[in-house]
Batch of 2 targets.
Target 1
Amino acid sequence: MSPLTMTAVGKRYRTGWAVRDCSFTIPEGGVVALVGPNGAGKSTLLRMAAGLARPTTGEVSTFGTPVRGRIHPHVSFLPQRRSLYRELTVREQVRACAAMNDRWSTDRVHEVLGLLAGVDHDAKVGTLSAGALTQVAIAMALRRLPRLLLLDEPLSDLDPLARDEMLRIIMTEVADRGTTVVMSSHVLSDVREVCDHILLIDEGRVQVNGEIEEILARHRILIGPATGRSDVDGTVISASRTERQSTLLLREPGPTPEGWASTEPDLESLVMGYLRAARERRSSP
Ligand SMILES: Nc1ncnc2c1ncn2[C@@H]1O[C@H](COP(=O)(O)OP(=O)(O)OP(=O)(O)O)[C@@H](O)[C@H]1O
């Protein structure tokens, strides 16, 4: 059963459509990078998956159950704005959460505090740095033992050390418990090393969705003469040209024509190619 499925999902705010006609399925286990530029619709997608925003069109399901205004018991969501009690100390915050959740044991409280080795457990939450706040919120989200963990920009406030530590904790969770993690970021390099699946969105639409290795294998970068591409077979995603040469990103390419050199793209150039193409479509009349 897929942890998260969206079918023809759209979300319109008063300002316009934030998400349009999104259909995708997330496989179970592993880390999905939800990537897109600022304002692409990442938070809106995650909020709909968590039951905090209602789709205007289509249907969102988690573990086969339609999300209708309430979060699935096996799903945990870390919003961009961390919702914690600022007047409590870190220790009190974790205990308060345990007291409100009958699935939490005393052991679980110690586990959460154990994950927060670099954070002062007696500091008031309101005095913590943004990075430490994020660490507390992620540790608490993890200890709810979700089968699907939705993280909205979890790494944006973290320094490089804290970021590596958080990624290590998340990867341990995935390996030990088979948790599925969907992690949004507008910086691909932040999530690249831990994700095996990518969901690229731009202007609220899915541009790319799938296993990274499979997606890369279906694309090629072709470099050839500046004069053109008439003999190139496949779907041209994006094209650029200098006086000397043309560079194409191709999906499902045919045989490489004479005079062209072909290489497999890395994920960064593939993402850039799709985003550039989307920008060109927007700016052309
Ligand atoms: N509550 C809201 N009311 C009106 N418009 C909204 C609301 N939330 C988001 N939007 C708009 O919807 C679009 C998508 O926003 P969203 O926050 O989902 O994107 P994002 O990819 O998460 O961006 P970022 O990386 O900057 O957080 C943006 O144009 C945003 O201004």
Note: Residues 13, 15, 18, 36, 38-44, 186 surround adenosine-5'-triphosphate (CB under 6 Å).
Target 2
Amino acid sequence: MAETKHIIVVGAHGRIGSALVRRYSANPDYQVTGIGRDSLDLSNPASIDHALAGLDFDLLINAAALTNVDYCEQHPGEAQSANCSGPKQLAEICAERGARMIHISTDYVFGGDTPGMRSEDDATAPTGVYGQSKLDGEHAVLEVLGTAGLVVRTSWVFGPDRPSFPDMILQRAQENDVLEAIGDKWSCPCYSEDFAEYLELLFQQKDAHGVFHLCNSGACSWSEYAQQVVDIATDLGIALRCHSVTPTKLADMDRFVAPRPVHTAMATVKFHAATGCAPRDWQSALRDYLTAKVSD
Ligand SMILES: NC(=O)C1=CN([C@@H]2O[C@H](COP(=O)(O)OP(=O)(O)OC[C@H]3O[C@@H](n4cnc5c(N)ncnc54)[C@H](OP(=O)(O)O)[C@@H]3O)[C@@H](O)[C@H]2O)C=CC1
Ligand SMILES: Cc1cn([C@H]2C[C@H](O)[C@@H](COP(=O)(O)OP(=O)(O)O[C@H]3O[C@@H](C)C(=O)[C@@H](O)[C@H]3O)O2)c(=O)[nH]c1=O
């Protein structure tokens, strides 16, 4: 594979896409073109062709997806086109141009029946439309691109560009005397800024291809994640009304439309072996995120 110089980021205004564009644009070795939904709609084949026409690139990173898990459950056609057919078309264009493609995917491709850390070779069994459409997208991209394709699965992403779970918890802890979060579902939080840094190490490996897991290290339940937010916020001197998170049951989360997989924590051993980098623990990453958030 040739050295990466011109990078296209599709989904440039999302949580991960924004972090990728920010980091790689700051590197004079790269030319970066960020493309948002306004000019490339994954559900509209003509807009994909139009947005990429005339662009010369070595690497395309697809960070666009329909990520609202419950919305996907109720709109399976839209989920399939955004998360599978559109990415497949991106892969076909990359193949025509001789470019590599990184397709971002999710821990929700797993069924999550048993505890433990998932490896890239573990069996997949999505529990809902979102996970199934993402898995179909993985297969389509890798089938089209072979060794020029990378699928990078991440989980529980947080970062400065869009609010996510830690922001919701912090706000609730500031406004309420009681704070609850689901205590019987586990995965690995991932800081978007770390993800951008680590992903670069992966695409710098010219021969890397296939599926990789990439998130901060360590697993937790949603309630442990929430408690860590509260503990760090307290350390940082943020005034909270509630300092203790009460674990609740996933089964009692009435407003979830789509079933969520229970155990989807992912091992990053393969990433470590390929790059020599062991992702830092999620607690340090969360502390950095919240510290930056309060100093804004
Ligand atoms: N967030 C998380 O916790 C996790 C995310 N992932 C994966 O990471 C990747 C990035 O997710 P993240 O940045 O968090 O998600 P976001 O929802 O923050 O960003 C996704 C972007 O894709 C855009 N988009 C949605 N539908 C389309 C479409 N039809 N055509 C073009 N663009 C579209 C969105 O546009 P708009 O702004 O209009 O919504 C948004 O800008 C995805 O592949 C996701 O599956 C994996 C695991 C966990
Ligand atoms: C965990 C939890 C969530 N919520 C709310 C927050 C939010 O509005 C809604 C859904 O929460 P989340 O978005 O965190 O959960 P979910 O939609 O399951 O998030 C998923 O997103 C996709 C993109 C992925 O790929 C997964 O890795 C995962 O991060 O439920 C609670 O009110 N209490 C809770 O304890």
Note: The chain has a mean pLDDT of 97.
